[in-house]
Amino acid sequence: MKNHPVSRLLFGVVCFCSYPVFVAGAGIDGDLQRQSLNPLAILIFFLFVVATLSITYWAAKKTSTSSTFYNAGGKITGLQNGTAIAGDFMSAASLLGITGLIFIGGFDGLVLGLGAFTGWPIMLFLLAKRVRNLGNYTFIDVVSERLDKTQIRSVAILGTIVTVILYLIAQMVGAGKLIELLFGLPYEYAVVIVSGLVLAYVTFGGMLATTWVQIVKAILLLTGVTMTAFLVLLQTGFSLDNLFQAATLKHPKGEAILGPGVLFSDPVQIVTIMVSMTFGTLGLPHILMRLFTVSDMVEAKRSVAYASGFMGYFFLLLVVIGFGSIIMITGESQFYGTDGKLIGGTNMTAIHLASAVGGDLLTGFMSAVTFATILAVVAGLTVSGAAAISHDFYAQILCKGKPDEKKELFLTRLTTVVIGVIAILLGIAFQNENVAFIATMPMVVAASVNFPILFLSLFWPGLTTRGAVLGALVGLISSVSLIVIGPQVWVSVLGFENAIFPYNYPALFTMPLAIITAWIISGIDRSARGEVDRSNYYLLLPRSELGPKVSD
Amino acid sequence: MKSDKVRHFIQRRIRRRFLFAGVTLILYFSYALNYTEMGSFLNQRLGNSYISGSLLMYALIIISSIGLEWIFLRTQEEMSSQGDEG
What we know:
The complex is a heterodimer. Chain A has a single domain, classed as Up-down Bundle (Sodium/glucose cotransporter), CATH 1.20.1730. Chain A is built from 21 helices and no strands. Chain A has helices spanning 5-18, 25-29, 39-62, 66-71, 78-89, 92-105, 110-134, 139-146, 149-183, 187-235, 240-250, 267-281, 285-288, 297-329, 349-398, 405-429, 436-459, 465-484, 487-491, 507-524, 528-551. The longest helix of chain A has 50 residues, at 349-398. Chain A is globular. By secondary structure, chain B is mainly alpha-helical. Chain B is built from three helices and no strands. The radius of gyration of chain B is 19 Å and the shape is elongated. Chain B starts with a helix and ends with a helix. At the A-B interface, α7, α11, α12, α14 and α21 of A face α1 and α3 of B.
């Protein structure tokens, strides 16, 4: 397991498509060849930066209050927000990582695409409307409507900050490595550039600028994958049958790549990945925060439906791109180094494919999209982290919901700068570390801490503050502990021969543990506060289902 | 009387939410069957084509999930208008 390339790639890919943290497992600790400076990629990226900074200049004029900073004034339309959600969640890294997995394992690589997609229909069916109706800026607002504000906010802030910081570390390390690889820029430069640009977007433009950066990025990414898939299908006469046949003829595993078993064979391992991906998505603070940028519950539902449509399209195209890469790259000497390995590692498969079907122009475009993706994702994370500190902690806990508006906005911007500096420091500090386990944690923590308290507070009348707090803490401790004694830390980092816990993604076990704990503790909770929490469910039910106007 | 109607209306909606979520999760986790003994059955090629049942399953799960979302939104609009009338 320790140095197995599939396992390293898998770690990275899960991070990629989950939030989409930018970690290429193979790109983190593998020996990668830095590419020569790509002028076209730099030109396209420069145009992207000019466009997004112009957007930020425009957005900064409209971001004068903390409300507009957190949720863009709630004036984003459903279509815009759906595109921004897709831009926040679906990354060029999903493209690189999943394409790489399909390249080496065929069908098995698709499980991560499916996992990344399926959280979205569930988000629409269960969460979108209720979260929008009960909250203002963060998902923490939603749970604190019903439960004791100070206690549940403290725990939920912990869940948010842990998720955001771990996420940022993985993001920055992956960003540095991948940009080094794609653009030929030194690692530290890449980390500083990413952080500097994100600080400019978020500090001045808040959620409005972040939204438009994510929209532009989503359009670029979808354009890039559409062009690549079209050019692949052009080679196969627009026949999927020809595509798969040619892939089986080229791949060393032959027809085995059309079904399961090349990379994974344990069904429990598959289910652990699926649970972590789906329920982790439902607990990601920066994704949930996007639901508050629209005017009402109808637009919130539309946002999720649009986002789901864009992502479904993206993950379907990955089948063409992944199997196309097998046809176009396998055995082509220009893509292999003197050591016989793919130049840049397996995560470069999609870029090599762009080169094979679209020449320098498409390669430059896809490389620039990759950089743009990192900016969009880090921007979303930074807004979410800043809101947790300035809104949830300062305004709601310290100021009891009555903060000074100017002070809050100042603190929000200050927090943004601090998060940016922390991102640079952590990115550089973890430069030579194996961060695969850090990349796994946010998704598992989100599934085991944030999702259970959010879901139970929305749908279970019996939940009490005591149950929610203890359930969340059990979810947090158990998920971190099982990751530490699992293969990624126990074997890969600490060097033991065998892991105590056999799975990399323990959410299959830790999420139910958190829910059961909350259920038991709430059941035996006879406190006065517990009675208030239970009755609050029924008081809030009409508002959560019908909206504030109707329930009034 | 009116609050009873509202309560029933909300309960219907909640049941519908869980029905759609349940169907989606069943579809999703059925993908894991590919990694059980059923895998060899699901993985068969469709006729003479190189498209396997497993690959088709991947695409169908995504497409049917989007279809379920569309049905959910449409039926919810109808329910809302009925609720408004009620």
